[in-house]
Amino acid sequence: QLQLTESGGGLVQPGGSLRLSCTDRGFTSRVPLRHYTIAWFRQAPGKDREGVSVISDTGRSTYADSVKGRFAISRDNVDNTVSLQINSLKPEDTGIYYCAGSSYYSEALSAGDYAYWGQGTQVTVSS
């Protein structure tokens, strides 16, 4: 099992950048994070959770159309961390960002495919 935790959120002005990180806070003798597909989702107030990006254990990645060219997902399999670099932030990027883990890779970015979830980190884009 994974016990995911996100970090790196905050308040940023439009056009700014943030780097979010996802780690397994319970990593000991279980299957390491590097063996899982990890995705980022976000949820804005009053809206459904939206898939943003996903990266497989081998580094294959997919992005939602709304973030292509501005977001970049990566993973460090030595540190067992998955990061989401978010650039050119817009007010509509505001929301809680969650990382989620799955044993399987899918480009569908469907929340139902992910068994493990972090508690989220708040991203607020405002001037």
The helix-and-strand class reads mainly beta
Number of E strands: 11
Question: Biggest β-sheet: count, sense, barrel?
Answer: 7 strands, mixed
Which ranges are low-confidence, i.e. pLDDT below 50, for 5 or more consecutive residues? none
Fraction of residues in helix? under 10%
**Arithmetic mean pLDDT:** 94
- Rg for CA atoms: 14 Å
Gap between N and C termini: 40 Å
Strand content: 35-45%
The global form is globular
Order of helices and strands: EEEEEEEEEEE
Work out the helix count: 0
Describe this structure in words.
The chain is mainly beta and 127 residues long. The chain is built from no helices and 11 strands. It has strands at 4-7, 10-12, 18-24, 37-43, 50-55, 61-63, 71-76, 81-86, 95-102, 116-117, 121-125. Strands 2, 4, 5, 6, 9, 10 and 11 form a 7-stranded mixed β-sheet that branches. It starts with a strand and ends with a strand.
Please specify the SSE layout and strand pairing.
Layout: E1 4-7, E2 10-12, E3 18-24, E4 37-43, E5 50-55, E6 61-63, E7 71-76, E8 81-86, E9 95-102, E10 116-117, E11 121-125
Parallel strand pairs: 2-11
Antiparallel strand pairs: 1-3, 3-8, 4-5, 4-9, 5-6, 7-8, 9-10, 9-11
